[in-house]
Amino acid sequence: MRTVRIAMLLALGIGSGMSVAQEKIAEGDYQIVAPAASENSNGQTISHWVLFDEHAGHFRLESETRQRFGMRLVQVEYLDNGLVPTAIGFDFYRKDDQLPSIRASCEFSTGSMICTGNSTKDPTAPNIPYKTPGPFWMWIEGLSSFDLPWLIDGGINLAHLDKGSSSIFTLVVSGGSGVLIGDAINIAALQSIGKPLTVIAPDKPIPWSFRSAEESTINLVGLESAEFQGSKIAVKHYTLTGNNNGEIWVTKSGLLTKLVLSKDRTFVLSGYKQFQQIVPELSVEKTTTH
User: Fold this and answer.
1) How many separate helices (H) and strands (E) can be counted in the chain?
2) Residues in a beta bridge with 239
3) Domain ranges within the chain, ordered by starting residue
4) Is the pLDDT reported for residue 10 higher than 50?
């Protein structure tokens, strides 16, 4: 079984540097806005994402967060046609890199998680399958830059909640090649200050480790109509209670349009375009390829 799972990772192109023809089906930005602002208000863009259809029974998400210190970090997810994630990873590019210098990816389509990746020429050994705790959102420890709305959306969609409530966990992934990405970003931040720096950190991938904790209870409030980019669309309204309190609005197709986590942390989807019918109330634009 483990051999099959690792082969699946390679077939998906995770960690292999593989490039295949992909059809772009949607794109957009997530922004942080003032709590009282509407979805059409200008805010601070935290990510630009593109969703591709690879014609192999899954979608591929590429979400690039804000660039810092000449580096790029791309969040890569594989999802089914209900936008339920089956794999989540990160590709790290140093300045002028054409290919990622560090990759970290975790696949969990069958209820157990296997992570792999590489750093330059050093591959990361896969872990023994780790049983996931239930619906979760995943965080690679040490990363301070990621597309939180897509990660939260993944947890919501994993819950398949049509009524009532469900627990949602934070799954913290440590070690592997992920630790090298976090270290590279943090070191660059310290170097930007211009002070002498002594680095004590691994230069090769280390073993993966996992821990989970119940973060919140998610409750389905109901189906609502919301204003979005000049149209009325149907959305599912959820509340979060527990360690994190908040509210979430997701289209019936699984796309997060608004996330409120605190009085000063409201995320909205903006600049959304679709090239296939994902949100039925919105028009479809001309398809492009990548």
Assistant:
1) 3, 17
2) 219, 247
3) 2-12+28-289
4) no
